[in-house]
Amino acid sequence: MRNEAGGGTMVVDLQTDPYNNNHHRHEITGNVHKPRAKFGDFLKADHDGIFPPVDPIVINTNLTHQRFSSVSASTMSSSGPASGDGSPCVMSPWARVSPPWATEFNEDNLLETNGLIGSIVREEGHIYSLAASGDLLYTGSDSKNIRVWKNLKDYAGFKASSGLIKAIVIFGEDRVFTGHQDGKIRIWKVSKRKPGKHKRIGTLPTFKSLVKSSVNPKHYRGKNSVKTKHHDAVSSLSMDVELGLLYSSSWDRTIKVWRVSDSKCLESIQAHEDAINSVMTGFDDLVFTGSADGTVKVWKREMQVKTRHTLVQVLLKQENAVTALAVRPKYSMVYSGSSDGVVNYWQRTKRVFVGGILKGHKSAVLCLAVAGNLLLSGSADKNICVWRRDPADGSHDCLSVLTGHMGPVKCLAVEEERACRVKGAKASMEGDRKWVIYSGSLDKSVKVWRVSEKMATWREMEEEPAAAAASSGWKRSPSLHEESCGWSSHDLGK
Question: Is the CB of residue 87 less than 8 Å from the CB of residue 24?
Fold first, then answer.
C-alpha cells in the first residue's frame, strides 16, 4: 500500500485492495430489468435510483480447477483449488499480480501475468471518464478535476471552471479535449517545458462564434446556419485523427462536427429523438451514434465543398436505451451496449451488416472498449466481461469476468502493454498481444488490469477435467458459467 502525501491518493495492490475482499453474493429479489426508461429517469437520476444494490451475475463458486488460484490478504498460491468462499475475481485465472510495465515479455508463462495489477483511489468523486496514452492515464470525475497519472502515481492535475467531466480525448502529444456536463468542450495544451502542466487554450464553441451569433442572431437561425452550442451535457467525444475532426454527442439529441485546426463547428445534426449517449468514428467514412431512444444509426461522411453527414442505415431499434458504442475498424466491427445488459455486434461484409448478441450482464452496460481481438464491457452490475472474437468465424467467447469494483463500472480505457508494443508484429501474428485495461467506477476508484488475447475460455479450461472424467466413466454436470450468464453469441443473419 502506498499513500501519496498531500493528495489523499492511495495506490493499492491486489493483496491489500479494500475493494477486492471476498464478497458474499446476494440473490436477485426482483426483476431489475424494465422497458427503456425515459431519459430523465435513466441517465439523470441519482445513482442509487438507477443501479441495483445487489450483484446480479451468478457464478458457480464450487468449481475446482488446477488453473484457478486462491488469494488471501497475506498470501497467494499459484496452484490448488479455489476456495468456495472466494469471489469470481479470486477464482478466475486472471487473479495474478505482477508489475504492469514489465521489461521482459514472458512468452512461456502467459497465464502467470494476467489479473488485477492495482487500484487508484482518490476521494475526489465518481469516475466518469478515462483516456490513456502510453504510460499516462487521464481521469475525469464529478469534482471538475482532471487528474493525470503516470505508472500508477499521481503525476499532475488541472481543473475546469465548471462542469462534470464526461469525456476525455487525447490528440497528438500536446492536446487534450474534455467534454463537460455544462455542454462545453474545453481544449488543453501540455507544456513542452513542464510536461505535467496543462493550460486551457480554448473552448468549443469558441467565444468568437458565440459573439457573432448574438450580434446577428437572424443569420445564425437560418436554414443553412450551424448551431454551434450544445444545450445539454456533452456525453461523448470521438476523434478522427487522420482528418482532424472531433465529433461530440450530447443529451440535447445532436452531434456536432468540429475542425480541430481552427476550432470551427462544421456541422450540427439533429440525430435522434432522445438523448445521445455515444458517438464513434468508424471505417469507410462511417460514423455511428447510439441513443436513449433505443437506436443505433449509421452516418456517411461526405467531404466535398462542405462536410456533410447523411443517415444511411439504422442498425438497431429497440425499447431499451443504447448506452455505449465501440468500433473495431480493422474488422469493420461495431458494438453497442444497452440498458438491459445486452451487447449487440455487427460486422460489415460487402456493405451489409450482419451480427449477433452477447449476454453476460444482468444490468445496464455502461461502457465498451476494444483491444485487439478482445471486447470489454463494463456494467452497472459492477463487473467487466472480457470477450474474445474468433477471427475464423467471427464468434465471441467470454474469457472471464473481472470483479472487484464496489460500484457501477462507468468507463474503460485500453493501452497495449509496452513489452508487446516492442514485439508488436510477432505478438499480433501469434495472437498473444497483452493489454493494460483501466476501469473507472462510481466507487471513486480506477482499477488496472492486465489481459491477454491468448487466455483460455471457460469451456477450454473445463475440457481437460471433463475429458479425464469421461475416460474414468464419470459424467459431469453442465457448467453453471454458461447457463447462468448466457455467454454466447447468436447469429442474427440467419
Answer: no
Across the strands, what pairs with 314? 297
CB contact at 8 A, 486 and 342? no
Distances (CA, A) of 303 to 135, 204, 307, 310, 454: 35, 22, 5, 11, 41
The predicted-structure confidence for 425-450, as pLDDT tens digits, reads as follows 454 444 578 999 999 999 999 999 99
d(CA 35, CA 52): 15
pLDDT at 152: 86
Residues 172-178: contacts with CB within 8 Å, 24+ apart? Answer: 175/260, 176/131, 176/138, 176/146, 177/237, 177/239, 177/246, 178/129, 178/140, 178/146
Residue of 338, 414, 435 lying closest to 379 (CA atoms): 338
Give yes or no for a contact between 124 and 144, defined as CB atoms under 8 angstroms apart. Answer: no
Bridge pairing between strands 445-452 and 115-122? antiparallel
- Strand runs (DSSP E) across 185-306, as ranges? 185-190, 198-204, 234-240, 245-250, 254-259, 264-270, 276-281, 286-291, 295-303
Is 285 exposed, middle or buried (CB count within 10 Å of its CB: 0-12, 13-18, 19+)? middle
- Region 19-31 average pLDDT: 37
Contact (CB, 8 A) for 170 and 138: yes
Q: What CA–CA distance (Å, rounded) separates 354 from 357?
A: 11
Residue 359 has pLDDT above 70, yes or no: yes
With contact defined as beta carbons under 8 Å apart, do 389 and 396 qualify?
yes
Across residues 280-286, what is the average pLDDT? 95
Distance CA 250, CA 279 (A): 9
Per-residue pLDDT of 290-341, as tens digits, reads 999 999 999 999 988 788 999 999 999 999 999 999 999 999 999 999 999 9
Cβ(165)–Cβ(179) under 8 Å?
yes
How many Cα atoms are found within 13 Å in the side-chain-facing hemisphere of 23? 20
**pLDDT confidence tier of residue 465, bands split at 50, 70 and 90:** low
pTM of the full structure? 0.73
**Contact predicate 357/490, CB 8 Å:** yes
Q: What distance, in Å, lies between the first and last C-alpha atoms of the chain?
A: 53
